[in-house]
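sry for the spam today, last one i promise. struct tokens for design, 206 residues
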């Protein structure tokens, strides 16, 4: 992916391991990577999931497309190259949360399969869990919802490179979790994710 520019830099280990942090928190952090069309429900589900986890005393942190584009990624646009770099940076940030035992709830359209797979690889290399959540909603339904009025603008030609309109969306082939948001309620979506986390030992005592 991106070349290492600086030389003579080395990882410096601390004295508290990730396992010790996970033990302290009573949870095993992981990245939940929400991918799907604009308006498919990524942010809505992440917000509801964060709320449920919080009620159970479990810590998660949302990383969201627009929020990050206003900060760390403010120098990036929507060309294929910038989208790739956007996702790479978010992938690295997600890893820091996982290392700290927190659940990173990363909601990004992330339309390119290769970019998502690279983030998965970044996690695999470090032994971190990457849980791809496909937030699946037909374009017609997402466009009907149009919560931010973006499809309307894209159809009017006011926004270029809009995923689903004049830019592609490559659906995940093997997501860990597949949510059909045109057929499920938000509550059902959240409990599907919570059950997944419980069954696989990411959450203790809930
Ligand atoms: P995204 O983050 O994918 O761009 P948002 O979460 O911002 O999408 O918007 C999704 C819209 O769809 C919200 O207005 C939400 O209330 C609505 N919605 C309707 N049904 C669902 C569902 N089952 N799951 C998630 N969102 C839903």
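last one done:
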């Amino acid at each position: 992916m991106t070349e290492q520019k600086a030389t003579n830099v080395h990882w410096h280990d601390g004295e508290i391991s990730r396992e010790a942090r996970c033990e302290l928190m009573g949870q095993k952090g992981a990245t939940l990577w929400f991918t799907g069309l604009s308006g498919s429900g990524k942010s809505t589900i992440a917000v509801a999931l964060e709320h449920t986890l919080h009620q159970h005393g479990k810590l998660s942190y949302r990383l969201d497309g627009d929020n990050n584009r206003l900060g760390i990624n403010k120098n990036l646009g929507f060309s294929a190259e910038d989208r790739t770099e956007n996702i790479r940076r978010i992938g690295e940030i997600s890893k820091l949360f996982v290392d700290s035992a927190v659940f990173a709830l990363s909601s990004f359209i992330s339309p390119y399969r290769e970019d998502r797979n690279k983030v998965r690889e970044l996690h695999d290399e470090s032994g971190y869990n990457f849980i791809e959540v496909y937030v699946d909603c037909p374009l017609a339904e997402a466009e009907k919802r149009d919560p931010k009025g973006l499809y309307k603008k894209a159809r009017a030609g006011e926004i270029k490179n809009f995923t689903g309109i004049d830019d592609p969306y490559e659906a995940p082939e093997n997501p860990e979790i597949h949510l059909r948001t045109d057929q499920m309620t938000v509550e059902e979506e959240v409990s599907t994710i919570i059950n997944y986390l419980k069954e696989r030992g990411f959450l203790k005592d809930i």
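The mean pLDDT is 93. ok im logging off now
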